[in-house]
Design the sequence.
């Protein structure tokens, strides 16, 4: 190929990766996979699509190099190709929120409004290292907690919070987190806890962002 042809092929390759996220359901699949691998059936249920449609989306994402697979017997599990995909996805979200007011309005509508204070990853990590008296609360589904959670975090999935709220001490600061900045689980949990008189804050990011920043995650089978 000529130098020009090579350059065009190179930039076409870049565009192919970006094009893989030109569909909202594929973007949603990436968002789900930031919190751990899933089977096709599990992903289909999560994004409320048929297994056939989900499989087609996954093949496009795999061809673009964004996801990879692992076989376990007759089951195939999909996961992100690398932590860099998390950064790519977060950067895309950030650009959309900064450049389009309608996107930001939708974010606020989806997450709900509140006045709960947020902590950054760095702030929470410093407090954990200083052994500050706080409880880190993971409100994601338990399988996501098992796949990787902030060290020392307590698992109480959001749907169990009301019946298990007494497990949380009122004397300590509660810091809740979930899947990321566009996950509605932690905002709902912190609003509920605050309404019950708990001292509560929320991590601005999620477990995938924590790992992408090089901070440690614990796995249940390693504890």
Sequence:
């Amino acid at each position: 190929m000529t130098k020009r042809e090579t350059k065009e092929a190179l930039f076409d390759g870049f565009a192919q990766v970006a094009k893989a996220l030109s569909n909202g359901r594929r973007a949603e699949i990436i968002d789900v996979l930031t919190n751990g691998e899933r089977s096709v059936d599990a992903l289909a249920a999560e994004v409320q699509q048929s297994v056939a449609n989900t499989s087609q989306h996954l093949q496009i994402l795999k061809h673009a190099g964004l996801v990879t697979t692992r076989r376990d017997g007759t089951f195939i599990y999909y996961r992100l190709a690398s932590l860099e995909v998390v950064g790519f996805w977060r950067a895309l979200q950030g650009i959309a929120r900064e450049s389009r007011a309608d996107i930001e309005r939708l974010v606020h509508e989806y997450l709900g409004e509140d006045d709960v204070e947020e902590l950054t990853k760095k702030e929470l990590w410093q407090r954990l290292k200083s052994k500050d008296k706080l409880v880190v609360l993971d409100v994601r589904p338990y399988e996501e907690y098992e796949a990787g959670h902030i060290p020392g975090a307590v698992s109480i999935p959001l749907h169990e919070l009301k019946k298990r709220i007494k497990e949380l001490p009122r004397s300590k600061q509660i810091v809740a987190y979930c899947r990321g900045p566009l996950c509605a689980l932690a905002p709902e949990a912190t609003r509920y806890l605050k309404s019950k008189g708990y001292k509560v804050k929320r991590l601005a990011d999620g477990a995938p962002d924590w790992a992408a920043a090089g901070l440690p995650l614990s796995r249940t089978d390693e504890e």
Q: What stands out?
A: Residues 3-81 form a domain with the Arc Repressor Mutant, subunit A fold (CATH 1.10.10.10).
